[in-house]
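Thread: sanity check for a docking pose with MTE

Original post by kr_44:
Hi all, I'm comparing my docking run against an independent structure prediction. Below are the sequence and the ligand SMILES. Could someone generate the full complex and paste the structure tokens? I mainly care about where the ligand ends up relative to the chain.
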Amino acid sequence: MGRLRNLLIPGVDKTLLVRDAVKTMPDLTRRRFISGGASLGALTLLTGCDVTDQFSAEEMLKQVSKFNDAVQAWMFNPDAMAPTFPESAITKPFPFNGYYSLDEAPEIEAKDWKLEVRGLVENRKSWTLEELYKLPQVKQVTRHICVEGWSAIGSWTGTPLHDFLKIVGADMRAKYVWFQCADKDGYNSPLDMRSALHAQTQMSFKFADEILPRAYGFPMRIRVPTKLGFKSPKYVLSMEVTNDYKGGFWEDQGYNSFSGS
Ligand SMILES: Nc1nc2c(c(=O)[nH]1)N[C@H]1C(S)=C(S)[C@@H](COP(=O)(O)O)O[C@H]1N2
Ligand SMILES: [Mo]
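Reply from moderator J.T.:
Ran it for you. Here is the predicted complex with MTE included:
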């Protein structure tokens, strides 16, 4: 611990922190972490520590230096579960994030919106919001982690994507589910099928028990608590089950598409 403390500078230099964490990782983990992009967000995802001050930065390094079987399992197992939290841990106010400011976020009218389902599915129909609201929903309180270096805990309610893919007769052997969004300059994101089928991956219709507000992706967003925030597209217009890698807004700018770890 004393050694780690010396590695830190007041105010937390994030680049240094990631570098220090890498040094303390076991070999295999290190290799996987580096090939996954070695971001502060990934570190937050792995350790459950949110680095906003020197104290939690030290806590994070302590966690990394204690990396054990549980962390290895999380890093190497795509089915590992993201931690869940009590409602009292929810961050208020929960941040909005996009590549533009909130007043430029898509304004979608429920009655004009349909979710188009296409590609390798038996049933290529488009779904109205009313139809989607009839599907069974579950609530999850999880941490959302942005590559830009912040994280927040929120509560999302919706239909497990796994259930929906079953209902539409998706070819579960396909490689990706590719989402397209309503943002004015476009936003899309491919999700590997294993993560699309993960038990916690959700089509979310509510935030904090209320209909999803515009800021967080009305009328529907995908929520993937095992991945970094940019893999959770908001304002979704269509999903395509495909074997082709179609790229995504952040993925095309060099962010690792797996981005779970
Ligand atoms: N359509 C769309 N989805 C998006 C984004 C975006 O700009 N457009 N930003 C992503 C990023 S980087 C983050 S951190 C989260 C932010 O979600 P929030 O506004 O609910 O906090 O949405 C993700 N999904
Ligand atoms: Mo993000």
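Residues 25 and 67 are 7 Å apart (CA to CA). Hope that helps with the comparison, let us know if your pose agrees.
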